[in-house]
Amino acid sequence: MLFKKKIEIREHGAPIYSVVGDGYSIFTSSGDRFVLKWNLKEGTQDHFSIKMDYTSYRLYYHESRLYIGSKKGEIYVVDTDKKSIVAQRKVDEKAIHSIIVGERLIVGTEEGDILFLDKNSLDEGKRLSFGAGKIRDLQFLDNNRLAAVSQDGYLRIIMLDSYELEHQFLVHDKGANKMLLVGEELFTVGKDGYLKVWNWQEEKELHAWPIHYETIYDIRQVGALIVTASRDKSIKVWEYKDDLKLTQKITSRLFGHSYSVNALHVIDEQNFCSVSDDKRIIWWSLEQEEVNLLHLLKAQ
User: Fold this and answer.
1) Which of 52, 174, 206, 244 fits a disulfide with 197 by CB distance 3.0 to 4.6 angstroms?
2) Widest CA span in the chain
3) Can you tell me the distance from the alpha carbon of 147 to that of 21, in angstroms, rounded to the nearest whole number?
């Protein structure tokens, strides 16, 4: 079983930084300052387009609302059904690099602050300042714990009821970019090209593998497989059962991206899409590997 390209879209005029959505209906943000909606199954642009004043590095989609963070610290909340902006506010002076939504809207900034905002008014309820550089990713570990990874390479776990810092430890000394929670284990990837697995409760490293030549920008779980995307222009697909096994490497020679792969979106257990500095959106689907009948006859 290998992932194969189903559809490729080349409509953005600059590198694509973020992709989110629901199934085959996705939103992308690009250096061309457009936030666009796409129907991946048809390979067409939907009737939804926002021209931003500044580039957006991070999108987040939750319950028919699209949250857009801009390069100049602005947050836009868009009702995607009504195609209308329901809230907007400048919440910081510099770029928004991570967004997550629970009971509150939580954003991570370029200067290492985490802001807790009202989802509707965008009023600031709390600001935590770590001086950590870019807060690259935010993830809920449970109902009361928020994990954050940042440019300084640290993983920080915050108690949401008290805002207390429960854990703080170094995970990637050159900078941490993304997290993935698999059962009780937390996966992290970073600028060092490593994938690491942690028992975060004990602040203990369980595994560490150098899996890419350059910065890893994203990690996702697609069905039973782990997929990583990197600045080295490749997407890699892995099996994980206490050990990590490479099952597929997608490069430009195999119809993949020709520049940095910046983000992934999981469609379902057999499909995902990727976006890149090469301005392309690619839908990948898991298909049965073709049988080489001539090879089988020779083997017999």
Assistant:
1) 206
2) 71
3) 22
With contact defined as beta carbons under 8 Å apart, do 233 and 256 qualify?
yes
Rounded Cα gap, residues 197 and 183, in angstroms? 11
Q: Which amino acid is at 108?
A: G
Please say whether the dihedral angle defined by the alpha carbons of residues 78, 84, 88 and 94, taken in this order, is positive or negative.
positive
The pLDDT assigned to 75 comes to: 98
Share of the chain above pLDDT 90, in %: 94
Q: Which residues contact 145 (CB under 8 A, 6 or more apart)?
A: 157, 158, 159, 160, 166
What's the CA gap between 121 and 215, in Å, rounded? 36
Ranges of residues in the chain whose predicted pLDDT is under 50: 291-300
- Write the DSSP string, 158-213: EETTT--EEEEEES-TT-EEEEEEETTEEEEEETTSEEEEEETTTTEEEEEEE--S
For 173: left if phi > 0, alpha if psi spans -120 to 50, otherwise beta; the answer is: alpha
pLDDT at 298: 41
pTM for the structure as a whole: 0.94
- Which two structure tokens, joined as six digits, stand for 50? 């926002």
**Residue 147 one-letter amino acid:** A
Segment 201-255, tens digit of pLDDT: 999 999 999 999 999 999 999 999 999 999 999 999 999 998 999 999 999 998 9
**Rounded to whole angstroms, how far apart are CA atoms 126 and 148?**
16
The DSSP annotation for 14-41 comes to S-EEEEEEETTEEEEEETTSEEEEEETT
Residue 24 corresponds to which amino acid? Y
Is the Cα torsion angle 41, 44, 48, 50 positive or negative in sign? Answer: positive
Query: Which amino acid makes up residue 239?
Result: E
